[in-house]
Each structure stands twice: as C-alpha cells, then as structure tokens.
Design brief:
76% of the residues lie in helices and 0% in strands. It is mainly α and 157 residues long. The protein has a domain at 8-115. Helix 6 packs parallel to helix 8. The radius of gyration is 21 Å and the shape is globular.
C-alpha cells in the first residue's frame, strides 16, 4: 500500500469521512465483538487467533474484512500496543479501504486516550499519595491494599 499524496486539508476531510464510515462497525464491535469478528473473518478466524504473527499476515490480505479483523484482534486479543500503533498509523493513511482506515483511526484515538488517561492517572495518584502519606500513612496503606491504588506502595515504616 503506497503512501497517499494528499494535502493536509484533503487528508483531514478524508479522515473524517473514513471515521464516519467505520462508526457502525465500531458500535457493533463494542456490543458484540465475537459476532463481528466472525462475520469479518470466517472461516479464517481460528487461524488468525493462533499467533500474533499469523494475525499480522492478515493485515496484508487483499480482503478488507480480514484486515479489519486483524486490526481488531491485535488491539483486543493480542494487546500489543507497540505493533498496533505502527500498523494503525500506516493503515489510517495508506489502506485503500475507507472502513479499514476509519477503524485504524479509531484505534489510534483509543491508544491516545489510553496514554492520556494513564498520564492523568499517574498525576492524580502522585497527588493522592503525597497527601495521604503526609496526613495518614495508615489510611494510605489501607487504600493501597484494598483499592489497589498503586502497583507499589512505598509507605514509610
């Protein structure tokens, strides 16, 4: 798939159209992912789920349904965010199918939201940790154990 030579304005217009084109599939997938994957990838779905490498092979399939299923599987089933980012970036621009580009854009937005959410969460946790450790170390320890606020709870002894 060759890089499209579009102006930034044309790229933005096309991205909006692609995102809209993929709306129904995104909504259906959120409600019934197994059904959607089956409809996109049967009879290849079992093979696609064998290994990440096999799933990646389907990203180059001439069948856009297989490319869609592969993207969704890498996102949800294999959960390899580094590879997913690479594939979604490329496919959001270069894929010849509007719905594949739209799903790739949707995945990119989801990755961005996760990163944003993780950063905000870390800042809030740092603020809470500082306040709780200074005001009530026992409460901080309790919250760490019960609510799993932190992966590591460095509570002063």
């Amino acid at each position: 798939m060759a890089m499209q030579n579009l102006s930034s304005e044309a790229t933005l217009v096309r991205a909006r159209q692609d995102f809209a084109t993929a709306t129904e599939l995104r909504n259906d997938y959120a409600l019934a992912s197994d059904r959607v994957l089956s409809s996109l990838a049967e009879p290849e779905l079992n093979r696609m789920m064998e290994t990440l490498q096999v799933t990646e092979e389907y990203l180059a399939s001439p069948n856009p349904k297989h490319r869609l299923a592969a993207l969704l599987l890498i996102d949800d089933f294999w959960n390899d965010q580094n590879k997913l980012l690479d594939y979604a970036e490329r496919m959001a621009i270069d894929d010849p199918d509007s719905q594949v580009r739209g799903i790739a854009l949707s995945i990119l937005l989801g990755l961005f939201q996760r990163i944003q959410s993780q950063l905000v969460e870390e800042v809030v946790r740092d603020i809470l940790r500082e306040r709780l450790m200074n005001s009530d170390p026992d409460l901080f320890t309790f919250l760490c154990e019960v609510r799993s606020l932190y992966k590591e709870c460095p509570v002063p002894r």
